[in-house]
């Protein structure tokens, strides 16, 4: 919602998507989710496959898509294993999460990070990030070491099992 | 890949047909076997090559959101296989045009050889372009194998248009062997995928349950094999049947191959 309010993407053009975690991975009655957008990979396949150089990587690691250069060939959409670039049928071009780089440059947080009511999203510095329990490839997230996605996950807490000692 | 991508289907199959035609013709010229000398390189053959290629290229423009900016696709030769693919197609087109224009003067076959070489490289570039990490089942050499098969099947069958019936044994052998190899490859590949990860298995089942996959095998491989066996010849209309099968197969390739992102949240 925060992303849509900021950028007003057309219907079905989703930059950040919430995926339910399958019961095979999280076998409890309560549900858990991954909230995923572009992972701004260290070696982004979208950037590598784009024939018109519509992508570039900033010094801070943000992968930016320059829409004015895009010709709508869809090669980045096919190539990204995380489904980050999407086709905008109105503009006939690809687009993806920009990490709100304009907000970052203005000293603000990305809209999704700022708006998440449960603080599930955070910006981290991978050079110094060392939180125990954080993983790069949790179950249900495609493992692509060559791309090296710049994202880390804290696995969902297991629900408390009520035993006799709790009664 | 969720939809059939018809412009890409037409572009890839027709351009591979053009490449296959030149490869088969060049092979004949450079092996220079006396019993194959009847296969005259001629303006008609270059014309057919160009007709396939240009029709495919026109179709490819319908795939782009902004076709008038298609010329900018050569900007990323340092990294993007798609840029190399389009450069290969452009050079192939130029050489084929040169072959057509100089056909009466140049009988050395060098242009034909250069065109075939560029065509082979273009098949490699196409194979790399269509094996992205987003599709685990085809993130390997399989697209290149599929494209080589298409080029040989349609190249060999269309070459028969330029050879009299009594002189087609060589083409008949190439076509028969390629059809058998194609049948084996297309039947085995989904079975191999069944032993892979979740997305590979999903792709295998999507292919196995797809009418396009079975149409491709039935119309594009089994029926031509039966016809070749019964007729012991390559009739002029056989390439049309093979082309129909290839188009179905390529549409299935784009529609039924499952993207990795489709399983996010599930076991891989």
Provide a descriptive summary of the structure in words.
The complex is a heterodimer of chains A (167) and B (268). With 167 residues, chain A is of the alpha+beta class. Chain A has one domain (1-156): Alpha-Beta Plaits (2-Layer Sandwich), CATH 3.30.70. Chain A contains five helices and eight strands; from the N terminus they run αββαββαββααββ. Chain A has helices spanning 2-7, 45-49, 75-79, 101-105, 111-115; strands at 17-20, 33-36, 55-57, 63-65, 86-88, 93-95, 134-135, 153-154. Chain A has a two-stranded antiparallel sheet with strand order 1-2. In chain A, strand 5 (86-88) and strand 6 form a beta hairpin. In chain A, 32% of the residues are buried. Mean pLDDT of chain B is 92; it is low at 35-39. Chain B has a single domain (6-263), classed as Formate dehydrogenase/DMSO reductase fold (Up-down Bundle). The radius of gyration of chain B is 19 Å and the shape is globular. Chain B has helices spanning 6-31, 43-61, 81-101, 110-129, 142-159, 169-193, 198-208, 211-231, 238-256. Chain B is mainly α and 268 residues long. The chains are: A alpha+beta (167), B mainly alpha (268). Chain A binds chain B through residues 19-22, 24-25, 33-34, 36, 45, 47-53, 69-75, 78-83, 87, 91-93, 139-144, 146-147, and chain B through 1, 63-67, 69-70, 72-76, 79-83, 86, 129, 132-136, 259-268.
CATH architecture of chain A: 2-Layer Sandwich
Share of helical residues of chain B:
55-70%
String of helices and strands of chain B = HHHHHHHHH
Q: In CATH, what is the class of chain A?
A: Alpha Beta
- Main β sheet profile of chain B: none
Distance between the termini of chain A: 41 Å
Number of β-strand runs of chain B = 0
Shape of chain B: globular
State the largest interface.
Answer: A-B, 42 and 35 residues
- Mind telling me the CATH class of chain B? Mainly Alpha
The whole-angstrom Rg of chain B is 19 Å
Quaternary structure of the protein: heterodimer
Instruction: State the helical fraction of chain A.
Output: 10-25%
Number of strands of chain A: 8
The CATH superfamily of chain B turns out to be: Formate dehydrogenase/DMSO reductase domain
CATH topology of chain B: Formate dehydrogenase/DMSO reductase fold
Task: Give, in order, the helices and strands of chain A.
Answer: HEEHEEHEEHHEE
Estimated structural class of chain A: alpha+beta
């Amino acid at each position: 919602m925060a992303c849509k309010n900021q950028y007003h993407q057309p219907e079905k053009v989703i930059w950040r998507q919430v995926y339910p975690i399958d019961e095979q991975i999280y076998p409890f009655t309560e549900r858990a989710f991954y909230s995923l957008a572009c992972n701004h990979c260290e070696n982004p396949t979208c950037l590598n496959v784009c024939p018109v150089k519509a992508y570039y990587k900033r010094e801070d690691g943000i992968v930016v898509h320059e829409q004015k250069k895009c010709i709508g060939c869809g090669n980045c959409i096919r190539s990204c294993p995380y489904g980050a670039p999407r086709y905008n049928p109105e503009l006939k071009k690809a687009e993806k999460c920009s990490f709100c780089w304009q907000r970052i440059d203005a000293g603000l947080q990305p809209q999704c990070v700022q708006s998440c009511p449960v603080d599930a999203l955070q910006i981290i510095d991978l050079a110094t990030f060392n939180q125990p329990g954080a993983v790069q490839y949790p179950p249900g997230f495609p493992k692509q070491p060559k791309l090296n996605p710049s994202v880390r996950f804290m696995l969902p807490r297991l629900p408390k099992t009520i035993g006799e000692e709790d009664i | 890949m969720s939809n059939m991508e018809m412009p890409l289907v037409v572009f890839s199959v027709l351009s591979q047909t053009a490449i296959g035609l030149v490869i088969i013709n060049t092979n004949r010229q450079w092996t220079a076997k006396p019993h194959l000398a009847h296969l005259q390189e001629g303006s008609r053959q270059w014309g057919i090559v160009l007709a396939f290629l240009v029709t495919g290229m026109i179709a490819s423009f319908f795939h782009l959101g902004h076709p008038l900016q298609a010329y900018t696709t050569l900007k990323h030769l340092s990294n993007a296989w798609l840029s190399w693919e389009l450069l290969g197609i452009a050079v192939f087109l130029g050489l084929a045009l040169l072959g057509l224009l100089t056909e009466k003067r140049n009988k050395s076959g060098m242009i034909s050889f250069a065109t075939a070489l560029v065509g082979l490289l273009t098949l490699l570039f196409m194979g790399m372009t269509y094996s992205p990490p987003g599709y685990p089942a085809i993130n390997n050499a399989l697209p290149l194998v599929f494209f080589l098969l298409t080029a040989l099947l349609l190249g060999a069958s269309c070459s028969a248009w330029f050879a009299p019936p009594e002189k087609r044994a060589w083409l008949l052998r190439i076509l028969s062997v390629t059809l058998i190899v194609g049948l084996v490859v297309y039947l085995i590949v989904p079975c191999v995928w069944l032993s892979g990860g979740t997305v590979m298995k999903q792709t295998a089942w999507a292919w196995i349950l797809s009418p396009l996959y079975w149409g491709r095998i039935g119309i594009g491989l089994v029926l031509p094999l039966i016809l070749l066996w019964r007729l012991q010849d390559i009739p002029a209309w056989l390439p049309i049947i093979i082309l129909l099968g290839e188009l179905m197969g390529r549409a299935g390739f784009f529609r039924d191959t499952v993207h990795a992102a489709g399983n996010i949240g599930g076991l891989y």
